[in-house]
Amino acid sequence: MTATLTPAARTSAEPQLKDDSGTGTKVFNRLAATCMVLFGLIWLVPFVFAVITSLRPDNEITANPSGWWSNNWNLHAYSSALQDNPIGWWYLNSFIIATLSVVFTVVVCSMIGFALAQLNFRGRGVVVAAVLIGLMVPTQAMVLPQFIEFRFLHLLGTYWALILPAIAAPIAVFVYQAFMKGLPPALIEAARLDGASWWTIYRRVCMPLCRPATSAVAILTFVMSWNAFLWPLLVLTQTKSQTIPVGLSGLIGGSANQYAEVMASAVLGILPLLAVFLIFQRQIVQGVAQTGIK
Amino acid sequence: MTTTTTAPAYSPSTPAAGGTERTAASRVNRAGWLFSTPFLVTYVLFLIGPVIIGLVISLFNTTTVTPGLGGWVGVSNYKEVLTSADFWASMWHSVLFTLLTTPLLVVLPLIFAILCARIVRHRWFFRLVFFAPYVVPSSAVCLIFAFMYTPETGLITKAFNLVGLTAPNFLGSVGGAWFGVTLLTLWWTFGLNFILYTAGIQDISEEVYEASAIDGASPWQQITRITVPLLRPTIGLVLILQILASLKVFDQIYILLAGGPGNKTRPVIEYIYDTGFTSYRGGYAAAATMVYLVVLIVISAVWVLSRRDNADTATTNA
User: Do A180 and A220 share a domain, yes or no?
Assistant: First the structure.
């Protein structure tokens, strides 16, 4: 449990349980594999079914909604989904909000993480305690007072209303703090002796070495920001200013005869993050394991 | 820059003997606070701020449509919340959802993570498949499941018929709605706990298994005597994280069911949403938020304390 926060990639060091220890073990492992494959396939069903449905013509779906085949595959539903809803705008909003949230979170949280790990300043204990208390505040549950606050600040309906509450992420602080503590002290001492300022050490020595922490924090912040629902639902009320999750939720219970279009919209809503996930699979999985277990 | 001070960051309370050391110490203090300031400002404004604002407006009859605090009402909002049948019903729905999802989402991912660890090749495939739903927005998940839950003709309804069962009305009956939301949540969030368990299993030394295999331990014995006992801290963590996450349920129930049928599945957050943004009673909804917050914080405190114990053992040489 203690080693999860070290910079070294752990995925390569999986315990390789060998299946050379008797037939009983072999049979058991074979059974485990079969079981896993079966459930893996079941887990894929909603994805595959949504994609297939989105490619079938509406009259076929109406005749047989749970069919897996079409005699007339087509992309028609996608073009009408893009036409009927400002999905392009939703993408853009989600993308801007998520990207800015990531930039601010990484900068702000890595700075304090650096201070807590490398600078023994007076009051450090108080700051650590404050961050720990922040960990207990359930942000999603605080939307009502948050709404009052942002109305007072006249920020409702702006991107800032979604970005600002995301920045102070206690969990990101702890990821950075733990990571920066793991850096070799000799390196920082050497930089000090060379006359480097703390800012230079943070910027030129620590941050480049903290890439794994940055990628974990960045990706998780992006996913969380992209998928946020309740707060954007309250804050962004114009159709064009909505994010992907809020926009898509408006399609539920809509016209019953446009299943292909609804599924196409869902697939379009899934695609960007699924792409991010497939590209950064390793970092995401590692990041989740790190931040959750610590 | 002076050369006399070596590693001021690591020496706790440098004795302020020389003038250079004193300036170095004060420089560290200044740097520490400067580096912390951006976080502390956003922290106070947007993390702690809403809690304080919630506390204040819960004592007023603030509305969410007109600016300003409104009039002072003392604790009458709290009295009303605590005696409101609707509030307690929604509290119960959140707890019920937690009771329905937590055992499934703690036990099933554990079983599959253990099984997955016994597979030699292509383990990445299962991590991918199980975790992928977790990155999908809630509303996309709900769109797909709503379609699969269609009465008579939906895919899941058909699957029930296939094995000789009658599917409940997933969107129209209370029992069916709970079943549907639980199944959706299981599919959607299974991967997170699965990954947490997988990471925990990776931390168990391979030698323990090898030694036990030499002693003739069966796979079943290895799992029950080694893996599960050694995973106990991870299981505890997953349990507390899952309880917290489940108590905060909103998205699925709101999007798929709108709290229906007849508010019979409405969770606390939707109750706060309804009273605050449909009835515009900000002060009252803030009081409900505070009551709910106390419940969550008590449980979170357990989590943070357990985290700190772990962190202490991980980084004691600070």
Answer: yes
User: Do A284 and A152 reside in the same domain of the chain?
Assistant: yes
Q: Which of residues 20-59 of A touch B (CB under 8 A)?
A: 21, 24-25, 28-29, 32-33, 35-36, 39-40, 43-47, 49-50, 53
Enumerate the residues of chain A whose CB falls inside 8 A of the CB of residue B293. Answer: 138, 141-142
Whether residue A110 lies inside any domain: the answer is yes
For chain A, the helix, strand and coil percentages under 3-state DSSP, each to the nearest 5: 75, 0, 25
Question: Given this model, what pLDDT does residue A155 score?
Answer: 92
Q: Average model confidence (pLDDT) for chain B?
A: 86
A128: nearest Cα among B47, B36, B8: B36
Supply the DSSP string of B148-170, one letter for each residue. Answer: HT-TTTSHHHHHHHHTT-PPP-T
> Can you tell me the ipTM of this complex?
0.85
A26 and A97, same domain (yes or no) = no
List the 189-208 stretch of A: residues with Cβ below 8 A of B: 189, 192-193, 195, 198-199, 202
Cβ under 8 Å to B: A residues 244-273: 244-246, 248-249, 251-253, 259, 262-263, 265-267, 269-270, 273
pTM of the model: 0.86
Count up the domains in chain A and report the number: 2
**pLDDT confidence band for B203 (50 / 70 / 90):** confident
Residue A176 belongs to some domain of the structure: yes
pLDDT at B195 over 70: yes
What is the span of the domain harbouring residue A225? 86-290
Q: How many CB atoms lie within 10 A of CB A4?
A: 20
pLDDT band at A257 (very low <50, low <70, confident <90, very high): low
